Amino acid sequence: MARILLAEDDDNVRMFVSRALAHAGHEVVEAEDGGVAAEIADVKSEAFDLVLSDIKMPVMDGIALAQHLGRSRPGLTIMLMTGFADQRERASGLEKLVYDVIPKPFSLAELVAKVGDALAGRPARIVSLAEALPA
Q1: pTM, entire model
Q2: Contact of 98 with 126, CB cutoff 8 Å
Q3: 43 CB neighbour count, 10 Å cutoff
């Protein structure tokens, strides 16, 4: 299947996401923050089909990672995830760099489906917090 670079500072979330994606047949390379992910991508950038990163992390956050990767590897599919509404809002305006933002918490099925959509190139769009909340 696909080779995915996963950047997530929470050990439990990183383990859950990594195992879910591996169970779906993907090869996952893990990084505990955006800075480590950037270093890995700089050395092996052509090796990844997708980068999945948390937004809020120490050293380098997911948005800075997306901007770094957008400069060094345009066209690389990047998805962000966050449990913080204010962080999700920070990602609006990055549609050219970021495929989508996955709100936490998410189920294994939601994660695998969203990654499948991204890898297949199915259209997605970042929705604002106001759009995401029920009326």
Answers
A1: 0.85
A2: yes
A3: 8
Statement: residue 47 has pLDDT above 80? yes
Total domains, the chain: 1
Q: Is residue 110 part of a domain?
A: yes
The tokens describing 41, both together, are: 């991508």
| CB 96, CB 119: distance < 8 Å | no
**44 vs 135: CA distance, rounded Å:** 44
Q: Which residue has the tokens 């997306």?
A: 66
> Can you tell me the distance from the alpha carbon of 58 to that of 56, in angstroms, rounded to the nearest whole number?
7
Structure tokens at 104: 């936490």
Per-residue model confidence as pLDDT tens digits over 54-96: 999 988 999 899 989 988 888 899 999 987 655 555 655 566 7
In angstroms, the Cα distances linking 20 to 15, 23, 56, 104, 113 are 8, 5, 21, 15, 11
Asked if residue 35 is part of any domain, the answer here is: yes
Assess if residue 95 is contained within a domain. yes
